[in-house]
Amino acid sequence: MAKAGIGRLFRRRREEPEPPLVDDGTLVVVGESFDPARADSAVLADLAEAGAVLEGRQLMLRHVLRLPDAAAVAEAGRILAPDGWVVAAGPDGSTYADRPQRVTALELARERTRMAGLAQRLGGDAEGWILLGRP
After folding, report:
1. Percent of the chain scored above 90 by pLDDT?
2. Does the pTM exceed 0.70?
3. H helices within 11-134, ranges in order?
């Protein structure tokens, strides 16, 4: 009987999963970077130093792209959809590629490089990224 009691002590409590992030207008900007020369790790370090809680938190990563036409936007959507990205028109002719995820400096750098390559291949430009989260 003692063994059953000990097992309960070491059993991990399951955390309640976070509800999925949806850009329904309630998300707020947690951080952003539009400087291609600045390392993503430096941006995240500055955000953490300023008090933004990013580690272990699910955020909406939004890449801001400038694509030449609707055909390029559709092609970007087709290419990115299998990896969970949602591509949609943003304001002022920009295009947003959104995906909820837990963000690390390595992941941000990898995805920023991917978006820059994709945008260039489609005749456009990757302007930067925005992190959105629950208030």
Report:
1. 72
2. yes
3. 40-49, 70-80, 105-121
